[in-house]
Each structure stands twice: as structure tokens, then as C-alpha cells.
Amino acid sequence: MRVRVFGLTVVLTLFLASSRAAVWSEAAGGEAARAAAPSPVSPQSGDVAIIVNPKNSMRDISFDVLRKYFKAERGQWPNGTKVVIAMRQPSGQAERGAVLRSVYGWDENYYQKYFRQGHFNESIQQAPKELNTTYAMIQYVHYTPGAIGYVRADQVDNSKVNVLSVDGRRPGESGYRIR
């Protein structure tokens, strides 16, 4: 009985500590990041922002070219940097589902099959990097030259990554396709 009570205490302590850290992080850096790079349009619920490494000079991409990058049909950015695809894990995660539906036009099973087969027959050199959290996605894209990934539009950290417009539209604008 003491173990259960102690275990519950530990869980509550960790939960409270992580909640305080999240609040502190938001107060310390979140507001500053948003103030440094305000978005002209507030993202709609469900919009998914396509993010790239801050050294990537692209600011707008056509939907067809975006699809080719995510399907590993194009392996280099216009400046010659290798494209590195980042995907959220686990399957069933909302942003991942939106990208599978909107960008790939596939379900999870076909996505898995496509990259397994491409790796097996060597038509795809590197499968997408799988990341578990929004924070991990932003950090990975920030530190990886050539990286392209996605996060919920209201969770973008503009101090670490750039958001691509797709066909001239940004998350939150009418006609934005990735949701």
C-alpha cells in the first residue's frame, strides 16, 4: 500500500513539475518568439504548417513540388542541399494524418509500404526521420540542414524554423490545403 501511495506521489510530482516547466517555457520564450515574428493571419484550427531549416532560402513552394519532396522523388533543394524528410510519430497522430491525407494522398499502411519498398529496391536512399513530439520536430528541423517537416500551425516557433507558403498561401489563409 505504501508503494502505491508513493508511486502516486511521484507521478503527481512529475506532472506538476512538467506543468510548471511548460508554463515557464511559455512565459520565457514562447511570447518572445511570437513577438519577434508575428504572423499576419492567425492559423485555423487544424492547419498544419510546413517547416524548413532556417538556412533554407525557400519561402513558397508549389503543392506539387512539396509532394515530390515528401515522397522522396526530389532529393535536393534548389541550392543543392540534400532534402531530409521529418515525420511525426506515432501513427494516428493528428498532424501526421493531415499530412498523409493532404500531401501524400495516402493512408498509413500505404505510406509504410511505399518507403519500405523504396528502401528495399534502393529507389529511396533514406526513409523519413520519425519524431515523437512537436518540440523534437522543431529542434530536428532547426539543426538539420535540408530538413522539411510539419507541426500544428499554432505551435510554430518562428525563432527556430521557417514556415513555407504553399501555392502562395500560409496557414490560416483561405485556400490553404494542409489541414
Task: Describe the overall structure.
The protein is α/β, with parallel strands linked by helices and 179 residues long. It has a domain at 48-166: D-Maltodextrin-Binding Protein, domain 2 (3-Layer(aba) Sandwich). The chain contains five helices and six strands; from the N terminus they run αββαβααβαββ. The protein has helices spanning 2-36, 63-70, 94-104, 108-120, 134-143, and strands at residues 48-52, 60-61, 84-88, 129-131, 147-152, 162-166. A six-stranded mixed beta sheet has the order 2-6-1-5-3-4. The protein starts with a helix and ends in a 13-residue tail after the last strand.
Structural class determined from secondary elements: alpha/beta
Number of strands: 6
Based on the coordinates given, report the CATH architecture of the domain at 48-166: 3-Layer(aba) Sandwich
Give the end-to-end Cα distance, rounded to a whole number of Å: 48 Å
CATH homologous superfamily title of the domain at 48-166: Periplasmic binding protein-like II
CATH-defined topology of the domain at 48-166: D-Maltodextrin-Binding Protein, domain 2
Mean of pLDDT: 82
Main sheet: strands, sense, barrel: 6 strands, mixed
Q: How much strand?
A: 5-15%
General shape: globular
Helix content: 40-55%
The radius of gyration is 18 Å
- The topology string of helices and strands comes to HEEHEHHEHEE
Quickly name the level 1 CATH class of the domain at 48-166.
Alpha Beta
Uncertain residue segments: 1-40
Report strand order across the widest sheet. Answer: 2-6-1-5-3-4
Helix count, DSSP H or I runs of 4 or more residues: 5
